[in-house]
């Protein structure tokens, strides 16, 4: 209802502005107006939206949406603001939403429209991933290096206030008022800054924030209301884009699953069936050694089927958000060693583990086991020795890295690295293409992220980064 009201309010303003423009053309008095002085006034106590042209520095003639006539109230009885930029922002956002832009491109366009329309120097949109982790996803007026910024709601009083009230939050000076972590204030030289929650259907999708490169500024009620209106409409388009993106992702996943089932599951199923059929029909004609070999092969293929079934179950639970993590105090080195013993078996002793013996954190044991297990299996299957596992607690984050010194990941495949069923064209092993997708899903369920980077001169490093809530 609020979104409908705000959209109708701005539509009324636009109609009034067009009406006044046409009227002025017929009256031939456009020359008396300073260029660009079409203004809009919002008389909040009376609930009236009005539009006007400023004829002289002290004279205001007001055309009222509710009264339909001229309102001779003095200038100080209304709040006057040039909102042509805001209307341009809405038109730009609407145009962006009508195309086939992917969500990242749409967010980028929204940032640029708001930056240009409102005169901010820097604008960013961050996504709220799991009701606590905030990830900067698009920026305008900032280097793309800023896209690596991640923090939790608990770390930012400004974002927490915006999330709690579902209204725009503003601080006049981030250097002296609690807003965001001090290292971010210093890094970006923040002064006055705002954060606007992007809310659609009662759900916060993320935040729109902006500043003027550290310079102080203020937002009056009119500017705040217009920003909230723009934010509400932007959130609606963003929600629409996320739904479309999710549908595309599900369609792709369904197609990959069909191909996966036809190839990966068919081979072990047919092998097991063939072995058992041979034993059933010709068991009496076979030697003991032949029976042992058949049983061993059938067992290996059945074990492979079990692994594939467990991976599919893991993935389906996480895709359906049915998995919940339960962090408890955990001795990290001991937990990692136990996982490596299970997944690496005879090779476990050759893996170098560099984790402090006294490192203990609140972590979900199952999630850590799935993440470490899949990363180690991936290194042993696709990489080359030496394989190293290290972990540390640094800069308010827990970081666990699994590094190998094989050929690394082909550059063209990096973008799809964590997609379910994805396998590089150069891969010759019989993996399912699910391990990294499962590890990433568990990482995100825990509020963290898996990231990949190449190793110089060759190799692959996968890092699990988990933000720690500051006390």
Question: What is the strand tally?
Answer: 18
Strand content: 15-25%
The chain-level mean pLDDT equals 78
Order of strands across the biggest sheet? 8-7-6-11-10-9
Helix content: 40-55%
Your description of this structure?
It is a single chain. The protein is α+β, with helices and mostly antiparallel strands and 471 residues long. 44% of the residues lie in helices and 21% in strands. The strands form 4 sheets. A 6-stranded antiparallel β-sheet has the order 8-7-6-11-10-9. A hairpin with a 2-residue loop joins strand 10 and strand 11 (203-211). The protein is elongated, with a radius of gyration of 30 Å. The two termini are 38 Å apart.
